[in-house]
Design goal:
The protein is mainly alpha-helical and 232 residues long. It has helices at residues 5-25, 29-53, 58-85, 98-112, 125-137, 139-143, 146-163, 185-203, 210-231; strands spanning 119-121, 168-170.
């Protein structure tokens, strides 16, 4: 039974992804976004549970990828599809279908790439999904402004490419056996930056648009830390 606990958590992630897809197809983008966030929460803890219990297995790895494809690939793709369908440029909705395609390729690549044990190469699928959760919950921000619609479409293509790129990204997974600043400097700086963004977003009444800003901060910090390490 202990061996199945991480898999059960992963299946909760998958179930959340299915609910998100259902709500997205009904045009309920807020509910769809909430279930994506809940699924990502489960995704964060299934690997941790496997490591703590010492029950990591190949089937768990494959199951995790399948769940991520639904929760962080198909579901955010459907959110984008509905967003663009309700915009002034409804033909852009097909761009949303690129998200699950690039996510699937990334997840397959991730399973085979042994370089990604302690860090990521390319934008992780959950991080990409959170961008579209934020825009989906505040859908009027995208659909009511033509320039914003076009900018979001361009951003979606860029992040799709980033998912399968060779750009190094730091991992957000924390080793609870060592929470020192020295070991987790980049992660702590990221969290401090997120806190600042959240406070600013609250003051500026950005609603859930702070989620895309979190991911942009994550990308910028990854680039900065990469350049710093290369300089040394």
């Amino acid at each position: 039974m202990k061996k199945q606990i991480p898999n059960l958590i992963t299946l909760c992630n998958l179930l959340c992804g299915v609910f998100s897809c259902i709500y997205a197809t009904q045009g309920c983008l807020i509910q769809a976004g909430v279930f994506i966030c809940l699924g990502i929460f489960f995704d964060f803890f299934d690997g941790m549970a496997a490591r703590l219990l010492g029950v990591s297995s190949p089937i768990g790895k494959e199951l995790d990828s399948l769940a991520d494809e639904v929760t962080s690939g198909v579901a955010p793709g459907l959110i984008l599809f509905v967003l663009f369908a309700n915009s002034q440029l409804p033909w852009l909705r097909f761009i949303g279908l690129l998200v699950p395609l690039f996510a699937a390729y990334r997840l397959a690549k991730f399973n085979l790439d042994t370089r990604q044990t302690h860090s990521f190469i390319g934008l992780p699928t959950p991080a990409n999904a959170l961008i579209w959760v934020g825009f989906g919950i505040d859908s009027g921000f995208v659909t009511d402004h033509l320039s914003i619609t076009i900018a979001v479409a361009v951003l979606s293509i860029i992040t799709d490419i980033m998912m399968v790129s060779e750009m190094p990204m730091f991992s957000l997974k924390v080793n609870f056996k060592d929470l020192s600043w020295k070991t987790n400097t980049v992660r702590y700086i990221f969290l401090i930056g997120c806190a600042v963004i959240a406070i600013w977003g609250y003051i500026a009444t950005l609603d859930f648009l702070f989620l895309p800003l979190f991911i942009i901060w994550y990308i910028l910090l990854s680039i900065i830390t990469r350049k710093h390490s290369n300089a040394h």
